[in-house]
Amino acid sequence: YVRRSRDRFWSGEATVDKRDAHWTLYECLVTTAKLVAPFVPFLAESIWQNLVTGVFGTRAAESVHLCDYPTGDAAVIDTALSARMNLVREIVSQGRAARMGASLKVRQPLAKVEVILADTEHHDWLEAHGALIAEELNVKAVEFAAKADQYVDYTVLPDLKRLGPRLGKRIGPLRKSLGAADPAALVAAMETKGAVTIELDDGPVELDSDDLLVRLQAKPGWAAAQGPSTVVVLSTEITEELLLEGLAREWVHAIQSARKDSGCEYTDRIEVGLVTESAELLAGAAQFADYIGGETLAVGLTHEPLKGTQPVDVKLGEHAATIHVRVVK
Fold first, then answer.
1. Distances (CA, A) of 96 to 104, 146, 254
2. CA 271 to CA 326: how far, in whole Å?
3. Rounded CA separation 153/19 (Å)
4. Residue 70 gets which letter from DSSP?
5. From the centroid of its chain, how far is CA 327?
6. pTM
7. CB of 212 closer than 8 Å to CB of 157
8. SS3 234
9. Contact 210, 162 (CB under 8 A)
10. Do 227 and 93 touch, CB atoms closer than 8 A?
11. Strands 230-235 and 222-226: what pairing?
């Protein structure tokens, strides 16, 4: 919630939306303090004293341990929204797993993600909220496909622990039959019917989704991961434009760390000097200067050292650089 609401928190104007974001966070933190009070009493009390007693004084309970334990209100639960957000979380989680499997940094933008849903009930809602998924996965486009066959190859194996005791000596012929079958067709039949029937010499064997282990391997140019309800496929092609934007994001991460190390307050506006011999890093900083400034609260960006600052040496990918940060008074 905090990450998704960052733009609302940092809004320069005292809008209703900004106040709503802060009050929602406040209510969540105060309620959490009450919830965890029996388990981490001192931490809960510290949160309470900072957020409640320190703000409302004697108008609030003196201690979190003098409050009633919070109870849930089932009437305000939005089951449809919860299901949809669970799907979003699964898509994002599998997308990040695919990135990790392909050794693609989270800060490197990618062209697109393809999402294949086992159940299309929430397709329209997810498509309308594609920007949320795109930002979380750092991709330029979110697209939905009916099948994953064009992006991945499947391997279907029997679950030996489950089927061994049941089939005994028949497990060998079953493995051979599964190896000769079309894995994509097996997966499709399992998705539509919930089970498949494999014909063996001594009779048929019916298998459900718990009896089979489905593994997928992304085709060249893609990285993939599979969850309970989705298959998520990322394009791994990195263009020059995407590469430079990735380097700009690396600059942002390094500048934010330099801000923290130099003792800047969260709201301090800064001047930044970015010094490097890497033409790629300089190109990324120049092309995405506005983005870097907006993310780091930098009002001035130069490629020269700043007098009176402590230089910070960093490594951005394969490139060495030095960062200078100075607070604007």
1. 9, 21, 21
2. 5
3. 49
4. P
5. 32
6. 0.80
7. yes
8. strand
9. yes
10. yes
11. antiparallel
Q: Tell me the pLDDT tens digit for each residue of 282-328.
A: 999 999 999 999 999 999 899 999 988 889 999 988 889 999 999 98
Q: Return d(Cα 91, Cα 114) in angstroms, integer.
A: 10
Which residue is listed with tokens 């003098």? 66
Per-residue pLDDT tens digits for 144-196: 998 888 899 888 888 888 888 888 888 888 888 888 888 888 887 877 778 88
Q: What angle do CA 207, 164, 214 make, to 5 degrees?
A: 45
Q: How far apart are CA 294 and CA 285, in angstroms?
A: 13
- b/e string for 73-89 if b means 16 or more Cβ within 10 A? eeeeeeeeeeebeebbe
Which ranges constitute the DSSP H helices of the chain?
6-9, 16-36, 41-48, 54-56, 79-101, 123-128, 130-137, 160-167, 171-180, 183-193, 240-261, 279-287, 289-296
Question: CA–CA separation, 16 vs 232, rounded Å?
Answer: 36
Do 325 and 255 meet the contact criterion of CB atoms below 8 Å apart?
yes
- Token look-up 């893609």 returns 222
